Amino acid sequence: MAALERQATTDDGAWKFPDGADYYVLALRSTTTTDLTPDEIHDYGLAEVARIHAEMRTIIETVEFQGDLQTFFDFIRHDSTN
After folding, report:
1. pLDDT category, 47, cuts 50, 70, 90?
2. Does the residue 8 lie in any domain?
3. Number of folded domains in the chain?
4. CA nearest 24: which of 15, 32, 33?
5. 27 occurs within a structural domain
6. Is residue 3 classed exposed, middle or buried when 0-12, 13-18 and 19+ CB atoms within 10 A define those classes?
7. Within a domain: residue 7?
8. Contact indicator for 54, 47 with CB cutoff of 8 Å
9. pLDDT value at position 53?
């Protein structure tokens, strides 16, 4: 096990292999319903997170919660009155 750990790399992802980036594009096309590139999908995901966070901040203001977004998420996860 220790010998394998010494050989392991931290550069996760298909792109570390020969033609890995091309493989990843083909894998996305075969497992999704989109022709978006990996970068476009990533950017879309980031935009969605930003949109959802903006909506959550509006909710925070509406309910007059005292704290930031992360504190609100923690409250929602752990509040026993939900």
Report:
1. very high
2. no
3. 1
4. 15
5. yes
6. exposed
7. no
8. no
9. 96
